[in-house]
Automatic annotation (TrEMBL), chains A, B:
InterPro entries in UniProt: FrlB_SIS, Fructosamine_deglycase_FrlB, SIS_dom, SIS_dom_sf
GO terms assigned for molecular function: carbohydrate derivative binding; glutamine-fructose-6-phosphate transaminase (isomerizing) activity
Gene3D superfamilies per the UniProt record, alphabetical: Glucose-6-phosphate isomerase like protein, domain 1
GO BP annotations, alphabetical order: fructose 6-phosphate metabolic process; protein N-linked glycosylation; UDP-N-acetylglucosamine metabolic process
Domain called SIS: residue spans: 26-185
The organism's taxonomic lineage, starting at the top: Bacteria, Bacillati, Bacillota, Clostridia, Eubacteriales
Domain of life of the native organism: Bacteria
Full protein name: SIS domain-containing protein
């Protein structure tokens, strides 16, 4: 399988899950002074923030909100104060908008937990608590969110759920990558020359839809996309779909599944070039069915990983290449 | 001027501003029992909700959030309860997701103020308070938001600000439409055959960017678009911009002006087909400069109205035509 090393993959997921002890210690110590909870990001990390707030708002009565770093730096947010707990993530630890935001958050009295992959970086030094481990940002965010909800009595199944994840998630996701490989190849082959590709999704998968379109296809593959929330699809975008329009629908298993399915059921009436990717097609051995909604975005990421690997191989376009980002001043 | 009747236009803005007494009476009576404030919409009204929350979060420490109606109907939101005041808007009063949402909001104990243009409609009957007057949804939302902030002591200038709006806004916006007419014609002519047009904006104009791209170009003109927040532009989308890519930047005068300007300054380095629409180019006689940020989205709407009028005239495509929306079951 191209670009897939199973042992490394398993180690990455296991390593992320093993951060739970550190996360619990931080959240348990901080939760008492926490009046509201803020997820702050930009670009790909902003998408992860969106996913996490969707996950929480169904379950928690806590004041939870996502902030875009650049928006916070300019507009500010009066809800941020001394009782605000902020969670951020960064691979490089140098993203300029994030560095400025942490400074502003501190000036407002907020405290910041950073998942900063590079330990020796400006962001790693700036945050109040730093956890450094590469990959699986979404899992780190959800573990943090779940611990807050557990402490508030809003996640009764916490221990059972995480026991299953620890025991079975790494192998489950690796199995999904393997099961999706042939699909990924055929999808990449069919769409590698698209002039414009539409991605539609809902729930915790909306963040995945948004970031997959923008951070992968646009930024890494240089293919134009539009992403849209499945709920919004019916209030405008549907009108430009015709027989040949390439549209892919991400269908997850959380509470908004029906919104994505509505698009999946509409498309065959007007379009002959659509694709539905349903996480329900991928088993997760050892994990209870009722937990799959909270893991759908991870399954979808396993599938899109296979599309990316084949798209890169087939097109010959190196995903690490950038035209402008960090290549020039602006 | 095509599709512009000045007296009707002035009457519409004046009529919306004249709703303020009704809005104040409702908000003044309800604010004491209000623990949090929710803006709920879908499609175009969702965009107006986004604009209003940006306007408020800079100024108010109140818990304020926007909910997409279809998301609320599926995922719910545990922050919604008996102390929640909800604001909605609908032209027809029949949008199915909105009808279902109001029912669910009521089941949670929340109370709903509806700006429902059609008095004799399901939504008008369902809401707790109904104000029926066509057009200017954004102005109605901002008046409601401003009254809440005034009562909390977060908007000291309230009386002075609205005295200026009452005296000068209708004529100011009409003047902007007239000033933008020739630009609107040339823009429509240049871009009427675009295969894909990008719109970028920030702050209260992000909602305008989103809805203009989706609800006008996609839904009404059947031209493909992507809209992106100016802050997010630099985290993915920039890589697919080349010499010929049609990109329009909406620049407003609120706190996020610099985010849009950053895109406007970047584009000339890589693109020869971009356009910047800056609300600062349009005077608003009699209105203090520091208030213009709160009115930029209205000025931008005046400009895009002119693009729409000419696009319809030049293309011969009737903006009222729909392929699918309310034309078929799905």
């Amino acid at each position: 399988m191209v670009k897939f090393e199973e042992e490394t993959y398993l180690d990455n997921v296991r390593g992320a899950l093993a951060l739970r002890g550190q996360i619990e210690a931080i959240v348990d110590a901080a939760a008492g002074q926490c009046g509201n909870l803020c997820w702050l990001g930009i670009g790909g990390t902003w998408a992860s923030c969106l996913q996490t707030t969707v996950h929480m708002k169904e379950r928690s009565a806590m004041e939870v909100f996502a902030l875009n770093a650049a928006e916070y730096n300019t507009t500010g947010d009066r809800r941020v104060g001394e009782r605000t707990f902020v969670v951020i993530s960064s691979v490089t630890g140098t993203t300029e908008e994030m560095c400025a935001a942490v400074e502003k958050l501190h000036a407002a009295g907020a405290r910041v937990l950073g998942f900063i992959d590079k330990e020796d970086s400006p962001l790693a030094r700036a945050v109040d608590w730093c956890i450094s481990f590469p990959h699986n940002e979404q899992l780190k965010f959800f573990m943090t969110a779940d611990r807050f909800m557990f402490l508030r009595g809003e996640f009764k199944d916490y221990d059972r759920y995480y026991a299953q994840l620890d025991a079975c998630l790494p192998e489950g996701l690796a199995a999904a990558e393997k099961a999706a490989d042939e699909f990924g190849r055929s999808f990449a082959k069919a769409h590698m020359n698209d002039k414009l590709h539409y991605f539609v999704g809902a729930g915790t998968l909306y963040g995945a839809t948004y970031s997959y379109a923008m951070c992968y296809w646009e930024e890494m593959h240089w293919i134009r996309t539009k992403s849209i929330h499945a709920a919004e699809f019916f209030h405008g975008m549907l009108e430009i779909v015709d027989r040949d329009t390439p549209v892919t629908v991400f269908v997850g298993e959380d509470s908004q599944r029906e919104l994505a399915l509505r698009v999946a059921h509409f498309l065959p009436k007007v379009c002959g070039n659509f694709c539905v990717i349903d996480t329900a097609d991928y088993p997760l051995e050892g994990i209870d069915p009722e937990y799959r909604g909270s893991l759908s975005h991870l399954l979808m990421h396993a599938v899109t990983n296979r599309i990316d690997a084949h798209l890169e191989a087939l097109s010959g376009h190196d995903m690490k290449l950038r035209r402008y980002y960090r290549q020039m001043e602006y």
